[in-house]
Amino acid sequence: MAHQTETHARPPSADRPARPRDRDGDGDWDEELVPDERGRTEAPEADCPVEVALAAIAGRWTTLILRELMHGPHSFGDLRDRLPSISPKVLAERLRVLGERELLVQDRLLGFPVRTRYHLTPAGRALRPLLVELYSTGANVQALRARRADEAKELPAGSSGSRPVARSRPGPP
Fold it and tell me: Which residue, among 109, 103, 101, 47, has the nearest Cα to 76 in the 3D structure?
């Protein structure tokens, strides 16, 4: 008997239409968060701008390499000096991947010995606001977590630290 692929996708129904909608069901999208159809999906899609941005910066060390190249072109050795904890193998791999993503270009400089220099493409430079916002957001999340941890330390012994949640419907006492 041949193998049959079973789909786990649920068919559209009255409470779950075929076309994705916003969460409150009124048909209105948060225009700042989802300004066009490319982001109005129920699953990650390759052409969603958020997925494109996340894919561009994906990978360990990638954001740090991009950060260094935001200041201008650097040789492999310069990047190694600026990021001393990265191995040459990993740096070479990340540079190769960033080139494949069309975020940087490798220039071979004339002379002996042959030298190389890496610089960002316009698409690579376009990631700057994203990196700035990620840093700012990360710092805010860290501060909120630290504040929550400090509040938890100040609670009296035996206290759970959680606050009651308001119920939207009457339930059992």
Answer: 109
